[in-house]
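Q: My labmate handed me this sequence with no annotations at all. I'd like to see what the chain might look like in three dimensions before we decide whether it's worth expressing. Could you predict it?
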Amino acid sequence: MSRAAFSLWNERIAPVFDVARNFWIVEVSDGQITGQTGRRFATDDPDERASSLVSLQVEALVCGAITRKAREAITERGVKLVSFVAGDLEQVIQAWLCNRLEKLDHSMPGCGRGRRHLRKNGVCRNRT
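A: Here is what I predict for the chain of 128 residues:
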């Protein structure tokens, strides 16, 4: 069984994790969704947010843009980070289940569209 959290805003992946209030947890076993629930962050503090995810046994976080401080707080606690993702929540969940989140369809604008980009340590960078 594994759990992933998706930062949420109006049924879409929140454009910026650091200001997103809500997140959606998906529990998966043998490639099938076995449970889903919505949660709300109680604080904007990156360390407390990361600790909340860990206490809920979240193994991966899928989000839009994220600040360095939040990224470090999450990855230091062993949570896998998949950032700079955009799109409808249900479509992103399905892409995550099929290991297709790296496709351009779910990249934030400027992070994979047009010129090719490379993500390094969760940061979108121009490929040279």
